[in-house]
Every structure is written in structure tokens, then in C-alpha cells.
Amino acid sequence: MSDHKTTDKTVKYCLLSAVLKGEIGEITAKGVVINTAQFNAFFSELNARYRTAFLPAAVIEVGRCGISHSKYLTRLSRGVYLIHEEALMEHSKLLKEEAMSVS
Fold first, then answer.
1. What is the DSSP string of the chain?
2. How far, in Å, are 15, 61, 63, 77, 91 from residue 19 at the CA level?
3. Under a CB-based contact definition with an 8 Å cutoff, are residues 81 and 55 in contact?
4. Region 24-34: what's the mean pLDDT?
5. pTM reported for the whole predicted model
6. What pLDDT, in 10s, does the model give residues 81-99?
């Protein structure tokens, strides 16, 4: 299990790290998908209202195709979200840079 409960990192950082480690989410033909039940179970220590609002708040607006710092999900259906591939690639690069700076 991830150490997200004891870290000072953002929820986004912890979520993307956990996805890249295979701790949360599901790989599908469309990409990595996460649902609210998985998110709520993984981040159970967060306030329930925050958990309810987090994923919908990160959805890329209709008509947009690029990601931003706070918008990196596509809503596939109620409670089911696709994590934008670019967000995962950028986070993977960040993790590699952090690992290199520690060594």
C-alpha cells in the first residue's frame, strides 16, 4: 500500500503515483480507468465531502482536449473516470526526476 496517508504530497500526486505503481485503477483498452469506489477506499482517510468532489473537479471541460494542473480526467460514465495519458507520462517523468535528485 502507498504511503499517501503519511505524506505531505497532494492528493493528485498520491493518486497518480498509486496508479503508476498499480495500487489503484484498472488498465483498459481506453487507458487507465478509476472509479469512485476505488478512490474512496484508497483515500478513506480524507473527508467524505472532499472525496466526493475530487474526481469530478478534475474532469477536463467539454470541448477541451489538453490537460492542465487541475484538469486531467475524462468522465466515461457516472463515477468512472479515464486518467489522461499525458498526465501519467508527466507524473512518471516527475517521479524519475525526484528519484535522480535523491541519489
1. --SGGG--S-HHHHHHHHHHHTSS-EE-SSSEEEEHHHHHHHTTTS-HHHHHHHHHHTBPPTT--S--SS--EEEEETTEEEEPHHHHHHHHHHHHHHHHHH-
2. 6, 22, 26, 19, 10
3. yes
4. 96
5. 0.88
6. 999 999 999 999 999 999 9
Residue 41 is placed in which grid cell?
A: 477506499
- Measured over the CA atoms of residue 4, residue 72, residue 37 and residue 44, the dihedral's sign is positive
Which cell numbers hold the place of 57? 473537479
Domain count, the chain: 1
Q: Are 74 and 60 in contact (CB under 8 A)?
A: yes
- Residue 87, number of CB atoms within 10 A of its CB: 22
Q: How many CA atoms lie within 13 A of 15 on its CB side?
A: 30
Domain enclosing residue 77, as ranges = 4-102
